[in-house]
Design a protein that fits this description.
Blueprint (H helix, E strand, L loop, with lengths): L2 H6 L29 H8 L4 H10 L12 H8 L15 E3 L6 E3 L10 H23 L1
Antiparallel strand pairs: 1-2
The structure holds iron/sulfur cluster and zinc ion (ZN).
Zinc ion binds next to loops.
């Protein structure tokens, strides 16, 4: 199940409404094997629901996907009581994967998430569409 589906399957949790990933490309939170979780984790860092999301994932032993800014392996380390730093901003020139289309690109600035203006603009439109869709489904 996508993180979008997982989040909306969580009943009565007010923080789910603030979840940034609920309106983003869910694949970034469940990247195929060998792909970086960094684009999703960088988005989590600024998510207003991050702490509650992480608490939920740890309490419910979520073993897949990015939750609260951490990959599954990093959450295992947190459970063992190890300290795991949240990701910092990418350095200029650092190789990243576009959070929308998955294409590799070099970060041009510290908050780079998308490969192009095209993806950035479309990601925004898709977020709005998904939000509207979710609201319609809630109202139905
Ligand atoms: S912290 Fe990340 S995974 Fe959790 S709700 Fe926010 S964006 Fe989604
Ligand atoms: Zn892209």
């Amino acid at each position: 199940m996508s993180i979008f589906g997982e989040l909306f399957a969580i009943p009565d949790q007010p923080w789910v409404r603030d979840a940034v990933c609920a309106t983003a490309d869910p694949e970034a939170w469940h990247p195929p094997t060998g792909h970086s979780t960094l684009p999703a984790r960088l988005i989590c860092v600024d998510c207003p629901a991050r702490k509650e999301c992480l608490r939920w994932a740890l309490e419910h032993n979520e073993t897949e996907g990015v939750w609260g800014g951490y990959s599954p392996r990093q959450r295992q380390r947190l459970r063992r009581g190890e300290r795991v730093e949240l990701p910092t901003r990418p350095e200029r020139g650092e190789p990243l994967e576009c959070a929308r289309c998955g294409v590799g690109f070099e970060a041009t600035h510290g908050t780079a998430k998308y490969c192009s203006r095209y993806c950035s603009k479309n990601a925004q439109t898709e977020r709005q569409q998904k939000k509207r869709q979710a609201l319609r489904e809630q109202a139905a």
